[in-house]
Amino acid sequence: MDGKVYGYARVSSKDQNLDRQLDALAEFGVEADMVFADKASGKDFDRPEYKLLVARLTEGDVVVVKSIDRLGRDYDEILEEWRSITKELKSAIVVLDMPLLDTREKPDGLTSVLIADIVLQLLSYVAQVERENIKQRQAEGIAAAQARGVRFGRPKKKRPACYEATKASYLGGHITRQEAADRMKVCVTTFDRWLKSDREEGADVV
Fold first, then answer.
1. Is 84 designated active site?
2. CA angle, residues 180, 182, 187, in degrees to nearest 5
3. Among the options 12, 84, 169, 197, which is catalytic?
4. How many other C-beta atoms are found inside a 10 Å radius of the C-beta of residue 24?
5. Does residue 150 register a pLDDT over 90?
6. Where exactly are the structural domains of the chain?
7. pLDDT in tens, 18-66
8. What is the dihedral of CA 126, 132, 138, 144, to 10 degrees?
9. Against a cut of 0.70, is the pTM above it?
10. Would you give the distance in Å from CA 147 to the centre of its chain?
11. C-beta of residue 68 within 8 angstroms of C-beta of residue 98
């Protein structure tokens, strides 16, 4: 391909360093003024420098990244973006840490685009399986913890010492719900929840 060679680098936060990626791009031969770099999450492609890079791409250009996770974290979105760059824009992508992910035309006639697509599909499948395994392990861990009596979520607000007397006053019609809640320094919703819990547990109603 006889086009321009661009580099792309990314780290997730502002306090992380881009030097290692920039050095790898320079070693490959990417000029410093042809490198686009973001300090942003890889959860999607809504990144300012990446958008500028893609807007410049034309047929025959090459995008170089150090590793596939610098392009993004979500393999479904990577697949979509990969196809957009290689098939719609007809630019090439080179992933330095994985030589098989190189869609440039090879002098030996290797179908590099096909090979890269297969490798990327495999990586996407592995990532999806790992996501599902993580979810399953989390579900199993939660179930095991619940079986041991571990409770999740925010701890329930403790009822104040004046709760029983306040409840009796409310049920006796001497104060309103709002006044009862104000007396215990809680919101009305919390007071209602306590009353409902008492009824469900069969507590004595005064």
1. no
2. 95
3. 12
4. 19
5. no
6. 5-129, 163-200
7. 999 999 999 999 999 999 999 998 888 999 999 999 999 999 999 999 9
8. -110
9. no
10. 30
11. yes
